[in-house]
Amino acid sequence: MSLDIDALLERRRLNRKVFWWRLLAVLALLAMGIGAFYRLDPGNLLVRNQAHVARLEITGVIAQNAYWAEQLENVAKDDRARALIVQINSPGGSTYGGEALFSAIRDVAQVKPVVAVIGTLGASAGYMAAVAADHVVARETSLTGSIGVLFQAAEFSKLLEKIGVSAESIASGALKDEPSPIKPLSSAGREQIRRMVQETHEWFVSLVAERRKLDRAVVARLADGRVYSGRSALSAGLIDRLGAEPEARQWLASTHGIPLNLPVREVSSEPPTSMMAELLGSAASGLFGKTLLPERLRLDGLVSVWHPD
């Protein structure tokens, strides 16, 4: 009889142990699930429904991007977004893409404070996006500036002649097929392109002078296409402060009363895709993206991009 009682007591003790181990396992899985939700949730649902600071990352080559404009419009309309941080790590891109991004950021700045944080590189159209903000922060070793416009075209007529290929072009006007890859650029065509580049460059210079509150002649001297370190850019008046996001948050707090402990909500910079499409896209980009079609070759029109030869 005593053996039965001892066995019953031992079984109960083991059951209690199993219960606590099961409870611990459930709590651990719950914690892991919450952590995964925070990490994988692209829309920051846990932050979306409370007051927050929005953050948009601008990376890579800047081109026409309707999704960025849509996301920035949503930030402007969202009363829960108290401010916007624009994180920039870009060599620039097309002048049209830079102008469109500049306008979209300025629309947000009309209704709430915006601060730009330049990372490793924020040059050309990347700097154009930065000056749309009310305050610009960069590290001492960040590269920025490169205020200028570029037009490049390749011409293969001598190569075609060498390999025995002839090509013809019939155009409705003298400048319709300028520049052309199959014939040398004419003096009239070169002058027309030069005027177009210079006109856009003058617009860029005026934009920087207005936004940075600098004399236009000063900006014109700075705008010879060179990049500046963050320290040099600060001395030249191209940025406002050395630092990174903590300094940006301090400015928001001291100037606009945005609490430092307000959470940050990531604004999606890329349209959501299915997992299979994302995997296929990543594989295709890895296999062909950099080898056959560099990003800068996909830019049409005038470009404002820093890429040292």
What features would you highlight for this structure?
alpha/beta; single chain; 8-stranded mixed beta sheet; elongated; 309 residues; two-stranded antiparallel ribbon; 2-enoyl-CoA Hydratase, Chain A, domain 1
Average the pLDDT over all residues and give the rounded result.
Answer: 84
The major β-sheet equals: 8 strands, mixed
CATH superfamily of the domain at 48-146 and 225-305: 2-enoyl-CoA Hydratase, Chain A, domain 1
Shape: elongated
Helicity level: 40-55%
Number of helices: 11
Report the end-to-end length measured between terminal Cα atoms: 92 Å
Query: Helix and strand string, N-terminal first?
Result: HHEHEEHEHEEHHHEHEHEHE
CATH first level of the domain at 48-146 and 225-305 = Alpha Beta
- Beta content: 15-25%
Low-confidence regions: 282-298
The CATH topology assignment of the domain at 48-146 and 225-305 is 2-enoyl-CoA Hydratase, Chain A, domain 1
Structural class: alpha/beta
Second CATH tier, the architecture of the domain at 48-146 and 225-305: Alpha-Beta Complex
Number of strands: 10
Radius of gyration: 28 Å
